Amino acid sequence: MDQIYQDIFNSFPYPRLILEAGQDGIIIRSVNIAGYDYFEGEETNLLGKTPEEALDDVVANHIVQSCRSCLRTGKPVTINIAPNFPGGVKVQSFMLNPIRELDGSLLIDMVAMPGEAGVNQVERERDDAILLLTSLFDATGVGIVVTDHFGRIVRINEVFSKEYGWQEEDMINKDFTVLLPPEERDVSKKLHGAFIERGKNGTREIQIIRKDGEFRDIWLTTVLLELSQSRRFIVSTLRDITERKNMIRNLRRSKNMSDSANKAKSAFLANMSHELRTPLNAIIGFTEMMRAETFGPIGHDKYIEYLGDVHFSARHLLEIINDVLDMSKIEAGKVELHESNVDLDEVFKSVEMIMAERAKQAEINLNFVVHEGAECLKADTRMMRQMLINLVANAIKFSKAGREVDIIATPLKGRKYLRVSVIDDGCGVAKDKLVKVMEPFGQIQDANTTNRGQGTGLGLPLARAMVELHGGELLIESKKDVGTKVHLDFPMERILSHVTEALSPRNL
Predict the structure, then answer these.
(1) C-alpha 469 chain-centroid distance
(2) 339-494 sits in which CATH class?
(3) Three-state secondary-structure class, residue 293
(4) Computed from CA positions of residues 290, 294, 300, 301, in that sequence, does the dihedral angle turn out positive or negative?
(5) CA–CA gap between residue 230 and residue 272 (Å, rounded)
(6) Mapping DSSP to helix (H, G, I), strand (E, B) and coil, where does residue 362 land?
(7) Taking a C-beta distance cutoff of 8 angstroms, is the pair 15, 34 a contact?
(8) What number of helices (H) and strands (E) belong to the chain?
């Protein structure tokens, strides 16, 4: 630029910049004196710099996008920018005019437009609002697509371009359905038309196609924007949720596989009842006959001792198998209640008879108490007996010689349930271990439980499952080295006798 034009350029009363579009992007080539004043810069930090290097991000992005639009259309573009300086925000309108030099280089003359003294304050506020919205449109962290009344794309922001690969020239004036899978286009087109007519805002989940053909899961938020002359546009923000959806799908698939495996396991074990129990019953029966010398003497005391060991081991194995099969049947949903009017006195007597020998060997006293009003219960007799046997066996196993175990049935009218409790003064369970003992096969081993015999760890879980089949619940209270209380609470409607308030002798 010769000197005369340089002087005219520098003396121009409004901010003016010459920008060049090259392979390295948009470069600031010249700035006049008013321009240096407006941008509060100097030659060293403006000339030869890109707008991104010289100005704040929002202003720089706005200028660069506008320059590209100006060069692409070959027509002047008017923009408002508002650089944020320590002294405040300076709002100024600029016209960007494309110029092609003789050598073929592309320049943009960016010149400030003089303001009108009589501009109405409302118009100024409107312009400021437009400027603010324009800046937000480009600076927001989510993709934005604007469509018109006919579903044509009129604008996209940079975030959308970066995330999905579509450039502005690919999208402008194209129908928005090009972004959607073919099977969703007709429905989406109808929804768009209905939204233009009646919508205000909405959200839904969709899939869109990246430029490379990849499908992405999107959470779409749409807002209806109405401008002058009843022109309506839809502003859609797109948040990519593909990774979250994939994680949910994987978790659901893993859960389904786990559930299927558990059901298959439970179904298998439930169907093995006859095959496992029959030979064990035969072993138990034959060893009982041999120990009783039904068909004549065995001839050696050692054989009698060994037969006792075989008989004990077989019965212990049968108990374990019964517990495992019962739990498997419950998990497989193959257990049905055979309800009848259960006499708790009779059930308690049968449990006392079954557990008497075990309690005697452990030197534990069993106390069975049925309070008035708890004599009769509508329930499954076998399950009632099994629950109590499991709980009493645990209480005996973990109680010291000379202690007592109380088995108490108490109707609690105020709380509207019947409680059957098994209480011991044994080693107890630490509070942080209670969850584990309620899990199938969960066992706690420490110095207090060593050499007391190990079962399956199914006693408590089985009792809980069985009481829940009756519509009740199992509660456990335990304290280390103090003892344990296990409560089976049955709904009040299962009590068939007259209900009165009663209190446990152990202060339940």
Answers:
(1) 29
(2) alpha beta
(3) coil
(4) positive
(5) 75
(6) coil
(7) yes
(8) 16, 19
pLDDT band at 127 (very low <50, low <70, confident <90, very high): low
Return the CATH class of domain 251-331. mainly alpha
Query: pLDDT tens digits for 345-360?
Result: 999 998 998 888 889 9
For residues 466 and 329, give the distance between their C-alpha atoms in angstroms, rounded to a whole number: 11
Q: Give me the phi and psi of 98, to 5 degrees please.
A: -75, 140
* 424-461 tens-digit pLDDT: 988 888 887 787 777 766 565 554 543 344 555 677 88
The CATH architecture annotation of domain 140-240 reads: 2-Layer Sandwich (3.30)
Sign of the four-CA dihedral 333, 338, 343, 347: negative
The answer to whether the 3-120 and 140-240 domains have the same CATH topology is yes
Between helices 381-397 and 459-469, what is the axis angle to 10°? 150
What are the backbone dihedrals phi and psi of residue 117, each rounded to the nearest 5 degrees, phi first?
-60, -30
The third-level CATH classification (topology) of the domain covering 3-120 is Beta-Lactamase (3.30.450)
Domain boundaries, the chain: 3-120, 140-240, 251-331, 339-494
**Beta strands 365-370; 339-343: pairing state:** unpaired
Q: 35 is written with which tokens?
A: 């321009």
> Taking a C-beta distance cutoff of 8 angstroms, is the pair 57, 36 a contact?
no
* Beta-carbon count within 10 A of 305 CB: 11
pLDDT at 298 over 90: no
> Which of 392, 403, 398, 401 is CA-nearest to residue 454?
398
Residue type, 465: A
Residues sharing a CB contact under 8 Å with residue 108, sequence separation 6 or more, in sequence order: 18, 19, 20, 21, 26, 67, 70, 71, 96, 97, 98, 99
> pLDDT: is 102 or 61 the higher one?
61
Place of tokens 């990519």: 240
Distance separating alpha carbons of residues 16 and 30, to the nearest angstrom: 8
Other CB atoms within a 10 A radius of the CB of residue 277 amount to 14
Give residue for tokens 């420490």. Answer: 446
Four-residue CA torsion sign, 375, 381, 382, 384: negative
